[in-house]
Known about the structure:
The protein is α/β, with parallel strands linked by helices and about 400 residues long. The chain has helices at about 10, 35-45, 60-75, 90-100, 110-115, 130-140, 155-170, 180-190, 225, 230-245, 355-375, 380-400; strands spanning about 15-20, 25-30, 50-55, 80-85, 105, 120-125, 145, 170-175, 200-205, 250-260, 270-275, 280-285, 295-305, 305-310, 315-320, 335, 405.
Amino acid sequence: MPCYRSDSFDSMVKRIRIVRGGTTDETVYNNHTAMGIGEAMNIDKGHKVIRIGLIGYKFMGKVHSNAYRTAPYFFEMGAIPVLQAISGRDSEGLSAAAAGMGWQDCETDWRRMIERDDIDAIDICTPNASHYEIALAAAQAGKHILCEKPLAVSLEQAHNMLHSAKAANVIHMICFNYRYAPAIQFAKRLISQGALGQIHHFRAVYLQDWLSQANARPSWRVDKTVSGSGALGDLMAHSIDLARFLVGEIREVTAQMDSFRPQADVDDTASCLARFDNGATGVFEVSRFAKGNRNSNRIEINGSKGSIRWDLENMNNLHLYLDGDEAGCQGFRVINCTEEAHPYANAYWPAGHILGYEHTFVNLISEFVRGIANGIQPSPSFEDGLRNQILLQAIEASARTGQRLEVE
């Protein structure tokens, strides 16, 4: 169904030639909505297009929409994402969102959108409990898939989602966006090069306070039937992904989970001690009741030769300590990761011109589009989502039983 059409639509469209899978046809696109002018210019040059179908139009839907529109300005991906159609249940809100965010069309039933021949990839920005059904349907229809985290609400679902995506031979990604902050990517490079030596410790806290506010609004995030879990799946899933990305696989967990609200059916806080395959130890804490912490996602890694610290609320800076520095000059230095030498930062502005939260999504989505264009599976994939789900389930089981659990 058409979402909207302005009175001046006919004066705003441009007929452009688009190459699709080796054949050329002509399609009319509204340059002021479905793609930016830069994107239209690239398509005029014969770039492939990937037609996106986005399900969900609120917080994450808006973030992802911005990323698709922004990525072609900064990255050569081998294809241009086109904002083809967006889906949501409320037709009035959906239509307004489509107009505001630049989508060509909208559907109030996500199933119809998946059935459409003019959609190449499905982006799932819906509450957690709906990921499974949508992803399976998308895979069966041969659509590439980007899914918000956590991947599912159960281990069985996560297994099936990965199996379906692999069986359909489609590109699949999970949106652990923080690993695409330039500072985190640079930290990965330093660790891989051995700058920190043998890793001994990983610490992560992800603290918010929105649920502790007296005027906290009702949210699906505190409804177990929709979210699957509370702070564990919402926040610790991110910390676990950073731990796996930077340090390696976790083999053992000891955890506790608590709620501070009467009759709460999801956790408000969770904490975990962990041991990695490489012998490093891990400490994780997440909470939605940590007053004064709006979105405090922080990590520290200590190795035999040095340490790093990172804080999302100051996300361009990586704090680095190296034991080999001259005596009297030792201490944490601050590296502003906006230089050409820093991963992804070199695609944007001159050094010192700060990047933001939204750029982590732009960077990730550039890899999603590039993966589809080149037939190469990017990461984090549904495989990473499954490993994350295994750990979330083990942490929940440890908290429930009070036992230390090994993770296979």
